[in-house]
């Protein structure tokens, strides 16, 4: 099953589940309770903490963190599991930036110092929903993965660059899905 966040990020072939950690958790849980979901592929855009990943690149992942910037600077802690890796599903191309660790938060990073700390920690991209998707998939014992197109770098121009590149990113994601998932569509 292909899913996406929704709102201004509707992706062809994908069912919208909601924006951010909470909406995505609720939306995917409701979907899993109503449907016989055998596997989940989340499709969406992402920002890159690393300048080594070109804009509009496709990245795939089966692992996510949920780390807030205060955690990176030793200003907070969490009693919760904040890193998830889940069994992948077949059909994901390995010609992309694959197995990248994704961070999820309800906030978009606009500080290069935070981006550098994330990259140094081995976390390369951010997407608001992916940690929630993996957590729900884990709860329902469903294989899951994410496919992301990079719209921006996580710096002071993040929002502007996201707006500039979002339309092209959705086209790239739809082309990728049509190629890699044609037998499932």
Characterize this entry briefly:
The protein has helices at residues 20-34, 69-72, 112-120, 130-139, 158-180, and strands at 2-4, 15-16, 40-48, 58-61, 63-65, 83-85, 102-103, 125-126, 144-153. The protein is of the alpha/beta class.
Q: How big a fraction of the residues is strand?
A: 15-25%
How would you spell out the order of helices and strands?
EEHEEEHEEHEHEH
**Structure annotation, total helices:** 5
Question: What structural category characterises the helix and strand content?
Answer: alpha/beta
Overall, the morphology is globular
- The overall strand count is 9
| CATH class type | Alpha Beta
Give the total of domains.
Answer: 1
CATH fold annotation: Rossmann fold
Domain Nucleoside phosphorylase: 18-160
GO molecular function: catalytic activity
Organism: Helicobacter fennelliae MRY12-0050
Protein name: Purine nucleoside phosphorylase punB
């Amino acid at each position: 099953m292909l899913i996406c966040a929704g709102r201004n990020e509707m992706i062809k072939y994908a069912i919208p589940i909601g924006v951010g950690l909470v909406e995505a958790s609720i939306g995917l849980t409701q979907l899993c309770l109503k449907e016989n979901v055998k596997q989940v592929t989340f499709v969406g855009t992402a920002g890159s903490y690393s300048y080594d990943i070109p804009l509009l690149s496709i990245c795939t992942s089966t692992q996510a963190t949920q780390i807030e910037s205060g955690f990176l600077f030793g200003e907070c802690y969490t009693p919760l599991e904040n890193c998830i890796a889940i069994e992948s599903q077949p059909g994901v191309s390995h010609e992309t930036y694959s197995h990248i660790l994704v961070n999820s938060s309800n906030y978009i990073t606009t500080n290069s110092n935070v981006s550098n700390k994330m990259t140094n920690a081995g976390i390369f991209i951010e997407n608001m929903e992916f940690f929630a998707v993996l957590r729900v998939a884990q709860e329902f014992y469903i294989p899951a993965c994410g496919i992301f197109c990079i719209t921006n770098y996580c710096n002071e121009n993040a929002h502007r660059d996201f707006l500039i590149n979002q339309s092209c990113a959705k086209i790239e994601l739809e082309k990728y899905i049509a190629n890699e998932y044609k037998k499932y569509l």
